[in-house]
Design a protein that fits this description.
34% of the residues lie in helices and 21% in strands. By secondary structure, it is α+β, with helices and mostly antiparallel strands. It has three domains: 2-53 and 85-274, no CATH class; 58-84 and 297-374, Carboxypeptidase-like, regulatory domain (Immunoglobulin-like), CATH 2.60.40; 383-583, 2-Layer Sandwich (TolA/TonB C-terminal domain). The strands form seven sheets. It has a five-stranded mixed beta sheet with strand order 2-3-5-4-6. The chain is elongated and about 120 Å long.
Length: 584
Amino acid sequence: MESVGLYLLKSAVWLTGFALVFLIVLRNERYFRLNRIYLLSGIVASIVFPFYTWHYAVVLPSVQVTFTTTSDFSAVATTVPVSTPIPFYWWLYLVGMIGIAIRLVWQTGMVVRKLRKTGYVKTGSVKLVCTSEYAASFSFFSFVFVNPSTSDIETKEIVNHEREHIIQKHWFDLLLVELLCMLQWFNPFIWIYARLIRQNHEYLADEMALQHTSNPAIYQATLLNQMFGAPVISLANSFNYSLNKKRFKMMKKKIDSPFRKLRMLLVLPLVAMVFYAFAKPEYITSAPAFPTDKVNVNADGQKVKGKVVNPDGKPLGGTSVIIRGLTIGTVTDNNGEFELKDVPKDRELVFSYVGLETAVIKPDFGNSMTVKMNPEAVGIDKVVVVGYVNPSGPPPPPPASADGIKIKPIDSQNPPLILLDGAIINKTKMDAINPDDIEAMYVVKDKASTTDLYGEKAKNGVIMITTKIKQTSSIDKKTSKVYTVVEEMPEFPGGINALREFITRIIKYPLEAQKANAQGTVIVNFVVNSNGKGERAKVVRGVHPALDAEAIRVVNSLPDWKPGKQRGTAVDVVYTMPIEFNLQ
């Protein structure tokens, strides 16, 4: 729809420019045939020229890396495009266009019905229709409508005039401008333009009719007698159209200098300005004046090939691969595969993808490389949690295994609290979970991580289960597409500082981890869904089960966000958060 809107804007600008030049410079000129050519050229220009965009070159310094690839993979959008509803103004435009089309069809149909009912008499090249339905005389294609009350002398003059409309095929101009009125009904200059065309038609017909009439005074008197009739339809040339002092003035013979025709060339600067206004730049990168690298790549270079995968092990198309320090590179195809030739032996390869950490790896010339890209923190720096106790006591128990999630024994009288992706479930639902859907599971027993955080219901410990990020629930198996980077990223209420303050306020250093002297950075991935809720949290790099469980708990406790948007539609977006735990 954007391209259609741009076309209509360009078309309106072209027509408005031609109309303004005619009104300012040409409307009083007596070169009526030349004026007709000009007005028709304006219509053609407003239809054809918007399809062409002039491009001009802009030379930029060589500061960016250029890639060569045959892949058409987009590195930004990670899922299928989301359709958006048609805006209200487009519906309004369609209603206006359809309304004008209906009016034109209805007016034309009325005339055709009258024609079939009345019939016509052929007089030379003119088909004369005598009907009392219309007070004013007009021509409709090859038909001339005249009221029976008109005298024979006046009828002769009217036919003499309307014949010129038919011979010069003025109906073609009217049909063309009516079609343009349907497209540009919102542009006031299209209606002015249509009036200018009709007015010029009358000047042309008057000019030729006066040459064939025996008495110009009778011709002008006939015009005056017809002045109270109203125009009938848009596709008709009315005999009394634009009947004013200026029309009679244009009938007078006056010799003008032929050089006045050159005034029409004033439209050329307008053409240049409009083309320039809608021109698009083509950015060209210039070669660096002083090369930053003097390595002869072809001297000792070898071929490197391999595959790039995302954190889940799936092919990552659209990843840029360049030789570090050189402007030579490529982009992985849809299968995540790449191939580089003439790679120097002493160089490293740089792999980069939007939303993932940049990887710098030494090339493996002998084998096909497999490069796994890791998540990159989006939108927040590390949150540091400091513990000040002197840990002592027995080491913490090892985390529970997700290889078959039967937790034995579970005391039915004193069951632990079971959390699935932050939501409380019972043991029956836990036993129904498919082990293949589980990303991680933690068992937490210390008071700081149980009753202090979840209340008395967690007095017997907490079992925390997180499912894989591509599933909204491991119970209903409902899957959803998830974006890595979108046009409008999710926003925490109050911004990044508010997010950091919220985490700092609610997070605790688990006693179990303090006793084990466990510290380090836990990286958590979670999804801000289209409703702004955080869900599907998982640890992508853990430190200790208790620290990992605390990080998951904090993420699941976050309030609703402003959801991310792609093309105006709210979507699910992956968010990465590092939380650092330090003991002092």
